[in-house]
Amino acid sequence: MHKPAATQYPVHELIRERWSPRAFSEKAVPPEILQSLFEAARWAPSSNNEQPWAFLVGTRGVGDTFKKILGTLVEFNQTWAKHAPVLAIAVSELAFAKNGHSNRNASYDTGAAVSQLTTEATSRGLFVHQMAGFDPHKAAETFAVPNGWEPIAAFAIGYAGDPQTLPESLRERELAPQTRKPLHEFVMSGQWGHAAPFAQK
Fold first, then answer.
1. Which of 25, 132, 162, 186 is deepest in the core (most CB within 10 A)?
2. Helices 31-42 and 106-123, packing angle to 10 deg
């Protein structure tokens, strides 16, 4: 399904084409493509080059990791995510490995890694749907995540499917246009609440 963003200003096609479907095709994602997606994540920027991320990844029909990840999702997300070919959980190391000090940028850096993975996925005709709706404590327990690491987000990877396969309530959201706040609401200059000159209406 093609649903490009109606941007205010020109951006790269990969950004315009990225969105988060819930209707996924059950078509498998080849291992060599998954390698490239996580290679893209590998080269994300991070504070002190700490690379404080790790990923739990399950491919549907291969082992039990997919089912385990699915079991950590809230019921709402399980209803559609079970059809995606790949499920994953992003995990952040909360302290610097070099000195044990708290790394306040760990989640920020992990998000950057997932963002690069998402852009690589878009370039290959794939989609990524990121989810806050999962149980991080259950994920940590299920996968024996060590102390000092925190599961922060789950995500599905796959090819877009047919929106008609979704329940009606989800189908409406799937077909609705993408929307975002305008720049003048969040790009500020001078002091808080004042739009930067280039971002004003």
1. 25
2. 140
Give, in order, the Cα–Cα distances in Å from 158 to each of 96, 113, 126, 145, 146. 33, 18, 5, 25, 29
Tokens 């299920």 sit on residue = 142
pLDDT, tens only, 85-94 = 999 999 999 9
Domain 20-177, CATH among 1.10.246.130, 3.90.1150.10, 1.10.630.10, 3.40.109.10: 3.40.109.10
Mean pLDDT of the chain, nearest integer: 95
Q: Tokens 């990225």 — which residue?
A: 18
What number of other Cβ atoms are within 10 A of residue 137's Cβ? 12
Of 147, 153, 56, 158, whose CA–CA distance to 111 is shortest?
A: 153
Q: Quick: pLDDT tens for 11-20.
A: 999 999 999 9
> Is residue 3 within a helix (H) or strand (E), and if so which, with residue range?
none
Q: Are the CB atoms for 113 and 121 separated by under 8 Å? A: no
Q: pTM value?
A: 0.94
List pLDDT tens digits, range 29-45. Answer: 999 999 999 999 999 99
